[in-house]
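Cross-check.
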Amino acid sequence: MQERLEAKITGRVQMVMFRDFSQRKARRLGLVGTVQNMPNGSVSVVAEGKREDLEKFLVLLHKGSILSRVENVNVVWGVATGEFTDFKIVF
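Predicted model, tokenized:
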């Protein structure tokens, strides 16, 4: 069964390759969805896939890119909508 992970990541997560990091890790895990910078300085991630892979991705989001400093990851779990075909960076 496919599930959905929605995460809001705060800290030093913009201008530190966090979106690229997220996209690479999600694709490697076979996840689909989006990652985008938000006006308030946070990053929003929506990912869909197998629960096991989403949990691995969540661990990576807590770690972040080499230049980032993740302070908080707020997570909401749900049922996959099937709206995505790839994992993309939203600009």
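The mean pLDDT is 98. The first helix runs from residue 18 to 28. Passed to J.P. for a second look.
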